[in-house]
Fold this sequence. Notes:
Rossmann fold, N-(1-d-carboxylethyl)-l-norvaline Dehydrogenase, domain 2, 2 domains, six-stranded parallel β-sheet, 21 helices
Amino acid sequence: xxxxxxxxxxxxxxxxxxxxxxxxxxxxxxxxxxxxxxxxxxxxxxxxxxxxxxxxxxxxxxxxxxxxxxxxxxxxxxxxxxxxxxxxxxxxxxxxxxxxxxxxxxxxxxxxxxxxxxxxxxxxxxxxxxxxxxxxxxxxxxxxxxxxxxxxxxxxxxxxxxxxxxxxxxxxxxxxxxxxxxxxxxxxxxxxxxxxxxxxxxxxxxxxxxxxxxxxxxxxxxxxxxxxxxxxxxxxxxxxxxxxxxxxxxxxxxxxxxxxxxxxxxxxxxxxxxxxxxxxxxxxxxxxxxxxxxxxxxxxxxxxxxxxxxxxxxxxxxxxxxxxxxxxxxxxxxxxxxxxxxxxxxxxxxxxxxxxxxxxxxxxxxxxxxxxxxxxxxxxxxxxxxxxxxxxxxxxxxxxxxxxxxxxxxxxxxxxxxxxxxxxxxxxxxxxxxxxxxxxxxxxxxxxxxxxxxxxxxxxxxxxxxxxxxxxxxxxxxxxxxxxxx
Length: 486
């Protein structure tokens, strides 16, 4: 069987417009996939060079395949389960910043270069004052970027038309702002010129972005079967879900230079990404946190099973459409369409998302993801949201255990143990309090200001309602209690 390479794809030779710090699955199944579509539609006409920003790992398979690979999206599309395969030709080369340092730095001198994409993990955007300008390359990503930008500045003698647009997708708040802050700190640390500092400030653009797509990576367990279907070997193929969203916040309008929405792609340019982040956290993440613990105690193990369970699915739908969406600020139609897409994602038959994996750190997750909707609903309607309130009782029912073993509180479901993973203070609280009389237990939990930032016992009727739900769950089981909700 042939290996996928340029002999099979016959890619168009396009000018290099993008360098990408990170060659991992997410960027290749998200950003590079989108640019490939924009190229095909004649809207971008640019290629990408991948940069391996860390010392370990190999680019051997990338070079064997001429950086050609398949993205296979699997999931619900218009109500049907589909597999959508696409051969990606937007990546021209892959460069090791450590072992091909000169080649890597030469990328900064390419006149057509305009964009810098990065995904160096949440820990990648950091300032380290021990990093050295003379290192080849500097050890941190912001240090590498600063030196890369400086080389471009010198090459083009400070030409203001040769600035670059930074598109970081690392999962931290205000990722572009934080990246620029680090670059400016390195400029100061390394005593680089005021002219260069001005060039970075005024010729370069640091966007902050929000990204959303589940990428499940390389299908190692089924690779032979995948190759038979594709008709070629592909050792760097990427699998993921069809849903995608890329929100790009920028002080300057770059939509004409990066016309991804014109290609029909789910990209939003804005000067404020916060409402979109709030939408994602409250609807997508909030839905998970509101139903997974109750669903697990009803006997389900993965999200797809939960969606096939009418009781859980109805609980989630009512939570989203009656209690979460009314508290958000974006247009109702936009929110309802996003919620419908979330439900399709949860119903993906190709993704087996374990409820216990989602349950990690549920106390802090409930505070971040559900509590804003919970409080917003009370403020708007003057009463408790029925299902979000029940979700807090379900959390307390899930976190029942007498022993902490190997870093987990041990709970039981139908006589079988399960592991409850959270901060030590949370696990110790439940170990020490969950067998107390229900009213005492509830008051102690709701009163933990370190868990919630406030004493939730002060909310009218909440304590008594949680006590009633928890007693019902203990006496009659989770499913019976959940089905009584109006």
